[in-house]
Amino acid sequence: MASVAQWPALDRSSGDLEGQVYRLMRDRILRGQMPAGQRVPSTRVMAVSFGVARSTVVNAYDRLKAEGYLHSTSGAATRVAAFPMTPLSGQAVQPPPNLPRVTEFKRGGLFEPGVPDVSTFPHAAWARCLGARGRSLRVHDLGYSDHGGIRELREAILEHISATRGVVARPEQIVIVPSTGAAIGLLASVLLQPDHPGDIVWMEDPGYASAQAILRMAGASLVPVPCNAEGIDIAQGTGPSPRLIYVMPSHQYPTGVTMSLQRRLALLEFARANGAIVLEDDYDSEFQYASRPIAALQGVDHGEVVAYIGTFSKTLAPGLRVAYAVIPSRLLAATEAAQRLRGAVVPVHMQAALADFMRDGRFRAHLRQMNAIYAERMAATVEALRRHCGDWLEVGVGGGGLQLVSWFHDGKTDDVAVARAINSNGFAVRPISALYLGPARPGLLLGIARMEAQAADAAAASIASLLATMPVNA
Predict the structure, then answer these.
(1) Where would I find the HTH gntR-type domain in this sequence (predicted)?
(2) What are the structural domains of the chain?
């Protein structure tokens, strides 16, 4: 067992004592300093050693268990988990063709995915921040010097994602952009070379249709890599080595799965060995209902192969048009140069106001409020769909995020036709098959953000009555 005397003192001035304990143990496990099977110190011993409450250590251990670093059984000591690397397939085959998909569907109806509830937006607090900054911007902020974003907002974002997502970076590595799409396009312009048409990009399958479209426009040849209950299986990637690998490891869109620790480590090792960049899109993982959020992949990347993307579109409002990317140091100069040429910038008064909004604690308070609201709506939607639509659909767990996946029991169902029929009755669901690059599994994707809990039952019953009239086998 590791001696507690070997553990460094916690930095009490920086706060987040639980996170510090978690990161200290995680990093030692990843470096091999705590081998698989090793018994870890008891929570009581660690608490005394660090001079913190036992609950702080218990919560840190729970995070490590949830992410697969530790395991324990009833009545036995907690030990370091074993997570062997998955062998990678070396067989190169021709990448499959990029198949056409239907992407245009009704907007604004019930159960529309990917759209937050902006009715609870904190208008008064935001107006105060925006008005104050509009009246008192510094001369320095009004110039051309900070193409990547003003220092205050970079620092505020880093403070937030370090504490909540485990991201490790310097403020200089954060680039402020108008949207996730702008961030993907910016990085694609740096990584994909115009004189090399057909640069290979591996993508989770099924995956985010907007990212697929943006990367195609950048000249990429997209190769689907299967995504199952443990996330992307990098060993199933085929063909030439990719320049870019696009993933959503913490809360995958549309399946909602969390990438396992084994898959995460395999992905990082593959990217390092093949000179690829992993583009981590942290879509809506700040909303977790069954457990606390899983740490970002970027935080365990010791080879600087991960570029991390986040957005305020889901946590605040899409209309603010603010997102960000955490860029590996070796790509920073090229990224900043590309951003100057592309003009993908956010107005400075918006940046300054958002920095104040975050520093005053208002953003974190809004997140807590919305997490509780969305958790209630997700639970009500899951329960209603299982009760009314269980004969046709396998309803997902709904452990987080703003959308819920449901798979048709009948694998031959035409989910595009079903979705169009349902949507003609006031809904805005999406067919899952439209999100595949390779062979598709039919299902429906439903957004829960604007579905009031008390209205979920009637909505699910309405969908069930429509399914009963369609050629969908139970």
Answers:
(1) 15-83
(2) 4-80 (1.10.10.10), 121-361 (3.40.640.10), 365-467 (3.90.1150.10)
